[in-house]
Structures are given as C-alpha cells and as structure tokens.
Amino acid sequence: MKVIAVYAVFASALVAAAPRLQEHPPSADAVLADLRQGNERHVSKHYTRPHQTAERQHELASGQSPEAAILTCADSRVPPEIVFDMGLGDLFDVRVAGNVARDTEIASLEYAAEHLHCPVVVVMGHQKCGAVSAAAESGTPPGHLPALVDAIKPAVLAAAKLPGDKIDNAVRINVQNVVHQLRESKPILSEASAQGHLRIVGAVYSLDTGKVDWLPDGAAPKTSPK
Hints:
This protein is of the alpha/beta class.
C-alpha cells in the first residue's frame, strides 16, 4: 500500500506538470502496426529516424504522449527506439535486466497506462539474455543478483522440461510469465486490460537478425527466437 500511495503522489505531480500532447491516443492495433513497420525498417536498415528534430524536442518540453510502453531488458544491444525505428517521445521505456516486473517496474507501467493512456504495453525479451543465463546457472550469484534471478527461475525450470535450446526457451517463457503477471496486476493494469483500454503483449528480439518475434496469446514456447 505504501508503494501505491507514493506512486499516486508522484503520478499526480507529473500529470499536473506535463499535459499530454494529444487527447485521443491511437488504437492498440494502430500502435502495433507502427511497431511492426518500424522493426521491419530496422531489420532492413532502411531507417526513417522520426521525431529526432529540434522542433520535436521543444514540443516535448510541454508534455508527452508515447504510443506504447516497452518493458525490456537493460542490455545495450536492445534499445527500443532503434529496434522499432522510433524517436523522441514515441516510447515509454522501462528497462531492467531480464525484463522482470517488480513493484518499481509495475508502477512505471501503471503510470504509462493510467496517466499517459498508452494503449499498448510490450514485454520484450531477447536472444542470449545474460540475466536468463545467470538464472540457469547453479550456485548463488553475488551482490543483489539473487533478487533478479529468483524472478526468472520459474521460466528456467519450465524450459528444462522442453526440447531445444534451454536459454532460448527460458527467454520466451519468461516473457510469457511477465505478460501474465502484468495482466493480473491489480488494480490498474488488470482493469485496463479487462476493459479493453490496454493490450499487453509479448515479444522476443533476435540479436542475430534484428527481428522482433511477436508472441501470440497462449502460444507454446518455440525452440529459438530467431
């Protein structure tokens, strides 16, 4: 309850200080189409690099209206604005190793959904994720890593029962687990999802090809994100 109270004060202050740039956000279908098209440009290296002008920067000083919130790994090889060929103010990025969702990450996504009215949340894992590999190793990792790998362990255990590459499978299952967690997160994300105001989807990024593999609801893990 303390986390929710602090979040409410923080969100209210931000909303008062930063009005949105548009009153009517695009539909979830339109946003997902934009993301898919942007990723196609990334794969082909035919970038348009939108919204990177001085005018865009100055416009955003008065508020923000990102199309989507992206919960993805902090890995330097997976920057959402490049992966989806987007620009300033287009995406609300929440980045943490292993794209896990604890109170702080969920609070950030709640802000994106409730106050910025993002119609889409994307949970995006990636091929050869170091956090997932760490969770698959035996022994106790140093520092604060146990808190991170413990969140990923269920995916590793589930992947051990499947054929194919265990890390690739664990990456995919971890994304599916986090998607389910967010859809069930009360009260904000679960209600927005149930009412059709928010779509929460999963994806896996290939370091080899640059392609984003979108996960259908209820899909069984594949053996590779390529």
